[in-house]
Amino acid sequence: MVPFVILFSIKLALVTTMCFGLLVILSLTEVTRYLTVETRSDMLVDNASQSDKLNVNIDIIFRKLPCEIISLDVQNVLGAHEVDIKGSLVKRRLS
User: Fold this and answer.
1) Farthest CA pair distance, the chain
2) CB count, 10 Å around CB of 76?
3) Mean pLDDT, range 15-22, rounded to an integer
4) How far apart are the first and last CA of the chain?
């Protein structure tokens, strides 16, 4: 009876240790993914209606970027690309 109990205890300790190791690995993986910065330079707008144009209001602050460099490009679902849209785009220098 004693060898069975010892063998069962060793197997249980091994499974517990493996589960704990897996828990540590998964936790560290999630923490590193959370702390990793992902930069994206695109914005997608889904237009549910069938109108040709969509009014988009954006308020973006670039503290160290000159106004002359900033431009706005638009691309629709079909791939038509318009570069440097002027329209009612207002650029204001921060003091």
Assistant:
1) 86
2) 13
3) 96
4) 83
For β-strands 81-82 and 74-75, DSSP reports them as antiparallel
List, for residues 62-91, the tens digit of each pLDDT value. Answer: 888 888 888 888 877 777 777 877 777 777
Annotate the chain with DSSP letters as a single string: -HHHHHHHHHHHHHHHHHHHHHHHHHHHHHHHHHHS------------S--S----------TTS-TTT----EE-TT--EE-S--TT-------
Cβ-count burial 26-45 (b if 16+ within 10 Å, e if not): eeeeeeeeeeeeeeeeeeee
The model's pTM? 0.39
Percent residues over pLDDT 70 in the chain: 79
